[in-house]
Every structure is written in C-alpha cells, then in structure tokens.
Amino acid sequence: MLRFACALVFAAVLLFLSGLHVYWAVGGQWGSEVTIPTVGGRRTLNPSPLATFVVAFLLFTAAAMILAEARISNPLLHLGSWCIVAVFLLRTIGNFNTFGFFKTVRDTPFASWDTRLYSPLCLALAGLAAIVALRRD
User: Fold this and answer.
1) Which of 7, 46, 119, 122 is 20 to 30 A from 13 in CA distance terms?
2) DSSP class of residue 26?
3) What does DSSP assign to residue 23?
4) What values do phi and psi take at 72, rounded to 5?
5) Nearest-angstrom CA–CA distance, 43 and 37
6) CB 82 within 8 A of CB 88
7) Number of C-alpha atoms within 13 angstroms, CB side, residue 83?
8) CB 80 within 8 A of CB 69
9) Can you give the pLDDT at residue 137?
10) How much is the pTM?
11) Mean pLDDT of the residues in the chain
12) DSSP at 112
C-alpha cells in the first residue's frame, strides 16, 4: 500500500510538471522567469520549444514507469526506476555552480527558488521513487 501511495504522489507531481513544460513549450510565460539559472543577469541556457516538449515527455514517461513499477514486476521497469532515482539525486546535488544543493551562485531569483523548492522537491522525488523501487508490498 505504501509503495503504491508513493508512486501516486510521485506521478501526480511529475504529471503536473509535464503539463507545465507543455504550457511553456507552446508559449506560456507563467513562472518561466525563475526556471532557468542565470549568471550575471543572463540565462545560462535558452531551451527551444522542442527541447521543452522532450522534457515534458520524459517527465510523463518517468511518472508512467514509477506507476508501472508499483504494480508490475519487470526487470526493465525496475532498472528504469533506479535510473529515475539516480537522475533526481543528481539533480539534487547539482552542477556545483548554478543549481543543486551545492551550487556556488546563490544570489539570483532562480537560486533562491532552487534552494527552497526545486532541489528539495527533487530529493523528495528521488526518495519516493526509491521507496517504490525498494519495497515489495
């Protein structure tokens, strides 16, 4: 039961984030000013709509994989679940410069949001995915 509840919470968050990325890919602006790290007032990257759609697809796929892992015993799903855990843990750690708990650039709007929301959320998502991958109800 705990395993499936964790999978549902994980999937709900990722499906919301996937939808948000689709919104941005089609031109939406809400929240976009604090979604990309900046250095010296300049964005460190400018993702194209296609790249943003790809991220949306990957978030959707991760949600589906964790939900499937909670209900189906399959070695490929199990491996995929651990890969998802690793991706979110790596995002939590960051690049030691502009994002993650160990970033050095800390005086930007993105850095503030990253410290308070993005990195802790990624750590929580890694934990939820790990519970799904570890537990056998």
Assistant:
1) 46
2) T
3) H
4) -125, 135
5) 6
6) no
7) 13
8) yes
9) 54
10) 0.92
11) 94
12) H
- DSSP string computed for 43-82: ES----HHHHHHHHHHHHHHHHHHHHHHH---HHHHHHHH
- The total of other beta-carbon atoms located within 10 Å of residue 40's CB is 7
Q: Which amino acid is at 103?
A: K
pLDDT in tens, 30-62: 988 899 998 888 989 999 999 999 999 999 999
CB-based contact 81:73 (threshold 8 Å): no
- Close Cβ partners of 37 (under 8 Å, ≥ 6 residues apart): 43, 44, 98, 99, 105, 108, 110, 111, 114
Cα distance between residue 119 and residue 94, in whole Å: 8
Residue type at 56?
A: A
Separation between Cα atoms, residue 83 and residue 32, nearest integer Å: 27
Rounded to whole angstroms, the Cα distance separating 46 from 69 reads 34
The dihedral sign for the CA sequence 74, 84, 129, 14: negative
- With cut-offs at 50, 70 and 90, classify the pLDDT of residue 105: very high
**Which residues is 38 bridged to in the sheet?**
43
The answer to whether 36 touches 110, Cβ cutoff 8 Å, is yes
